[in-house]
Amino acid sequence: MRAARLLLSVGFLKNNNLTLVLGIFLSVCWVVIAIFAPWIAPYDPIAQDVARTLQPPSFAHPFGTDNFGRDVLSRVIWGSRVDLAMGLGGVFAPIIIGCTIGLLAGYFGGIIDTLLMRFLDITISFPFFILMIAIISILGPGLMSFFIALALVGWVSYARLVRSRTLVLRHSDFVAAGQILGFSSIRIMFRHVLPNAALPVLVFIMSDVVLTILLGSSLSYLGLGVQPPLAEWGIMIAEGQNFISTAWWITLFPGLAIVILALSFSLIADGLAAQYKVSE
Amino acid sequence: MMSKLIIRDLTVEIVTPSGPIFPVEQFSLSVEPGEIVGLVGESGSGKTMAMRAVVGILPRSAHIASGEILLSDADNAFVPSSQQSHLRHNIAMIFQNPTSYLDPLMSVGKQVAEPLRLHQGLTRKEARTEAIELFRKVGIHDAERQFDVYPHHFSGGMKQRVLIAAALACNPKVLIADEPTTALDVTIQKQILELLCRLRDETGISIIFITHDLGVVSQLCDTVSVLYAARIVESASTIELLNAPLHPYSLGLIRSQPESAQRDRPLPSIPGQPPALNAMPSGCRFLPRCEFAIQACKQPSPPPLVQTSAVRSNACLRWRELQTLGLNYD
After folding, report:
1. How many CB pairs under 8 A join A and B?
2. What pLDDT is attached to residue B76?
3. What residues of chain B score a pLDDT lower than 70?
4. Fold designation for B5-221
5. Which pLDDT score, from 0 to 100, does residue B328 have?
6. Residue A259: exposure state from Cβ atoms within 10 A (0-12, 13-18, ≥19)
7. Residues B277/B283/B289/B293 CA torsion (nearest 10 deg)
8. From its phi and psi, is residue B24 left (phi > 0), alpha (psi between -120 and 50) or beta?
9. Is the Cβ of A8 closer than 8 Å to some Cβ of chain B?
10. How many CA atoms lie within 13 A of A33 on its CB side?
11. Using CA atoms, how far apart are residues A245 and A70, in angstroms rounded to an integer?
12. For testing contact with chain B, the best of A180, A201, A202 (most B CBs within 10 A)
C-alpha cells in the first residue's frame, strides 16, 4: 500500500501528533488483546458456573460475573475478537465497491456518472439503519448477513468521497500525461487517480470502523447480529440490562470497551485529518 | 525507424452556448524525420490546442472538426489518424510545468518504467534497468539512486528531464515540446535545449517545439511556423523567417525582440490586442493591428496560406511587396 508507506515515510511521530499516536497505541492494544484472547482471558467466556452468579468485581473476577456465572472480564476480552472483526471486516466490501463506483462515475462522467449517482441516491434515500435491519431480517441474523447488508448499503459514502476527488483529479495534468503515454483508463484510474484520492478515504475508513462497530453491537443488542452464547459486547449489554440496578458491572464493562475501541479509531481519524489537513 | 508527420487542415471546434468557436483553424504542418520545427505565437493563438489535438488530449468540450493527422510508419506508408493508437504510441509530449505532469505519489523511476513495461512488455527488473539507462541519457546523475525518489524531491529542471525520459520510454517518432523551458531559469533552459538537440542527433527523433521566444527558435529550430489568432500566418525555414519575414505579424514579432532593438529607442511593439476567439474580425485577422493593411484585406474570409516557394508559405496578401521592402523598410 503506497498510502501506508507514505504515512510511515513522512513520520507522524516527528510532528508531536499526540492524537494520532494515542489512537494507534490504543488500537494496537485492542488488536493484541483480540489476537491473544485465549491466553489473556482468565476463564472460558462461555463456561457457566451456577454457584457464582452475579458476583461483584473481586480479585477472582475483576469485572464480576453475570447471571450465568460467566466471567465478565473473559467475555469482554473474547468479545474484542468479534467486535474488531465486525468493524474491520465490515468496512472491507464497502471500500472496494464504493471506491470502484466513485472512480468510474468521476472519471468517465456523462451517462455513467448519472446512472451510478441516481443508483446511489436511491440507496441513500432509505434510512441507513432501517435498510440494514430490513436486509438482515430477510437474510436471517448472523455475522455473514451483517457483512452482506453492509456491502449493499455502506459503499455510498466511499463512492461520493472518491467521485468528488476523481472529478478534480481527472483534469489534472498527470492524468493527461498518462493518456499520452498510452495508459488504459483502468490503469490511470487505479494506479494514478485512486492513490491521490486515498487520503480522505483513509480518514473516513477510521470513522467508518467506529460506526460499523457501533452498528454491529446495536444490531447484536437487537438480536439481529451475532447470536448468543458467543461473547459480543452488544449482546452482553442486552443480557445485562435486566440486572442493571443490582449488577451494574455486567453492562458497564462491555459498554466501556465499546467506548474505548470506538475512541481509539476516532483518534486515528482525527490525527490523520490533522496530520494531512484533510477536511471532512 | 524515422517517420514523417503531416498535419493537414486541422480544425478544432469548441461548442459553447453562444455558438461554436475555433481555437485552431486549418492548421497544416509537415515535420520531416529528425527535424526540429518551431511553433511560435502569442498566448491563446492555438499552439497548445493544436498539439493537444494531435496527441488526443483535447479538453472534453473540444473536438477535431476536420483535418487529418498522418504519420508514416516503417514502410514509409501513411497511417490515417483514425488509428489513434498508432499516433499515441509514436508521438510523445512534454510540457511547460513538469511538476503537475508527474504523479506526486509515484517514484520518478516507476513513472518512467511504467510505459516501458506496458509498451515493450518488459519485466519489473528489465524496466528498472532500462529506466535507469534513460535517466542517464537525459542527464540525471546518480540515476540508480534517483530511481526511488519522489517528484517533490526534484527541481523543475530535473522533473523536466524525468518527463523527457518518460516520453522517450515509448520510443516515439515525434516529440512535442510545449514550452518545456519557459518555467526554468536560463542556465537550466540551455541544458534542456542542448539535451533535446542531442537526442535529435542521436535518435533521429523529430521535435515540434512550441515557444514564444524567437531567441530559442533561432538556436534550435530548422523551420518555424508562426500562429496568429488560431491560424498559421507564415511558415519558413528559421533563417529565412528571421532574416526576411514576409508577414507583418512575423515582422512585428521579430522587431519587438529586445535583442534586435536599438539601444536609444523605445522597444517597438505591435499595437493593439489579438482578437478574442468569439469575436474574430472578418478578413485578415491581423488587419486591425496591421500597418500594411489595404482595402483588399477586408475580404469576407481570412486570406489562405499560400505556397510562396518550395519551402515557404504565407497568408498575407501583400507578401510580394514586403519581400521588396525587406526588414529595413523604415
Report:
1. 62
2. 60
3. 1-2, 73-88, 260-261, 326-330
4. Rossmann fold (3.40.50)
5. 52
6. exposed
7. 170
8. beta
9. no
10. 22
11. 19
12. A180
DSSP H helical ranges for A222-248: 233-240
For domain A2-276, the CATH class is mainly alpha
Q: Do A172 and B100 lie within an 8 Å CB cutoff?
A: yes
Q: Which chain A residue lies closest to B117 (C-alpha atoms)?
A: A183
Residues pairing with B155 in the sheet:
none
- Residue B19 CB neighbour total at 10 angstroms: 7
A233: buried, middle or exposed (CB in 10 Å: 19+, 13-18, 0-12)? Answer: buried
A55-78: per-residue pLDDT in tens?
Answer: 778 887 888 788 787 888 889 999
Residue A183 CA to residue A188 CA, distance in Å, equals 6
List all residues 6 or more positions away from A35 whose beta carbon is below 8 Å from its beta carbon. Answer: none
Q: Tell me the average pLDDT of chain A.
A: 85
Q: Best interface-test mutation with B: which of A181, A183, A189 has the largest number of B CBs within 10 A?
A: A181
CA–CA dist A35, A77 (Å, integer): 10
Lowest mean pLDDT among A11-20, A159-168, A180-189, B134-143: A11-20
Q: CA-based angle B140:B135:B107, to the nearest 5?
A: 95
- The pLDDT of residue A231 is 82
**Amino acid B329: pLDDT:** 45
pLDDT of res. A105: 93
Q: What does the pLDDT average to over A174-182?
A: 87
Q: What is the mean pLDDT of residues A15-32?
A: 86
> Residue A42, exposed/middle/buried by CB under 10 A (0-12, 13-18, 19+)?
exposed
CB B161 within 8 A of CB B138: yes
Buried b (16+ CB within 10 A) or exposed e, A10-38: eebeeeebebbbebbebbeebeebbeebe
CB A202 within 8 A of CB A272: yes
- Whether residue A2 is predicted with pLDDT greater than 70 in this model: the reply is no
Q: Does A183 touch chain B (CB under 8 A)?
A: yes
Res A97 pLDDT > 90: yes
Measured distance CA(B175)–CA(B3) in Å, rounded:
12
% chain A with pLDDT above 90: 26
Q: What is the rounded distance in angstroms from the CA atom of residue A187 to the CA atom of residue A263?
A: 37
Domain layout of chain B by residue ranges: 5-221, 245-261+282-325
How far apart (Å, rounded) are the C-alpha atoms in residues B90 and B1?
Answer: 11
Whole-angstrom Cα distance, residue A249 to residue A236? 11
Interchain contact, A176 vs B101, CB within 8 Å: yes
Residue of B nearest to A6 (CA): B105
Top-confidence residue, B73 or A123: A123
Provide the pLDDT for residue A279: 53
Mean pLDDT of A13-39: 84
| B319 inside 8 A of chain A by CB | no
Question: Could you tell me the residue ranges of all domains in chain A?
Answer: 2-276
* Distance of alpha carbon B241 from alpha carbon B254, whole angstroms: 9
Distance CA A108, CA B268 (A): 49
C-alpha cell at B190: 540551455
User: CA of B275: how far to CAs of A9, B249, B272, in Å?
Assistant: 51, 13, 9
Band of the pLDDT at A116, cuts 50, 70, 90? very high
